[in-house]
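Late entry, evening session. Most of the bench is empty. Finally got around to the prediction I had been postponing all week. Sequence below, unchanged from the version circulated by S.P.
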Amino acid sequence: MNPFTEHPASVGESYPEHLRVATGFGVRMIAGGVAAVLHGVFPFLFKTTGSRTIEALHGKIVAKRGDAVQQRSVEFII
């Protein structure tokens, strides 16, 4: 099978759908990571942005996959 379509098909997406979803996740992770780094330097900024980003992405992936194993909560705050 084509390496560009094998994994997307395994998660029920076409290549363009997977590109959009994965890129969206990546951009949100980068933004949350930058906010967490800035929070580390300036503790008064972005107090909950990293945690909220993780929770939102976790919720989306659990909803998409429907995995019982994935339904653990995020139990930490960055």
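Two things to note before I forget:
Helices lie at 6-10, 15-41, 49-65.
The two ends are 41 Å apart (CA to CA).
Will write this up properly tomorrow.
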